[in-house]
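Sharing in case it's useful to others searching the archive later.

Someone asked me privately for the predicted structure of DUF6879 domain-containing protein, so I'm posting the question and my answer publicly. Question first, with the sequence:
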Amino acid sequence: MPSSVPTIADLMADCTRSAVHLEMRDHYGVAAEADEFRAWLQTGSVDTDPNSPGWAPWVDAVSSAVARGVVVRRARIVSEPVTDYIRYEHASTIVNVHAGEQVRWLPRRRASDIALPGNDFWLFDDRLIRWGFFSGDGALIGHEISDDPAAAKLCAEAFDAVWAHATPHDQYQIH
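And my answer, the predicted structure tokens:
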């Protein structure tokens, strides 16, 4: 899908302090992952090689940002018991951690008292948002950039609240 919205890697490269990502869906039907997800469903095996062609660009973007002093955090709000897709994500998250991301998981039932934006987002340096829009079946339908201060404040506060309640990746047990 052609887009004039900067890539996450480009935004990460321009970031100076922090990059946070909040994921709130139980399934993503992203076309680029479809074959690997299907293979994981059949075999239980997933690519966790940070040097593989599928991971290397991401690992490079994150590790370069972290080396510059950028704190990169990802939080996932998930329903329990988790979906197969969340199991798949959990199985490959070790690569995110290897790259330098801090990752936490929050069971949806523990998010009830948190004011959340309506869409997944990346927030860079507490000021620039890259919204992610998905269809009902999880297909990526687009992105949008916003520097609206009120929206950035909502995203920062929501992420911080989720982060405070969430469990670090190495301690989160899939249910």
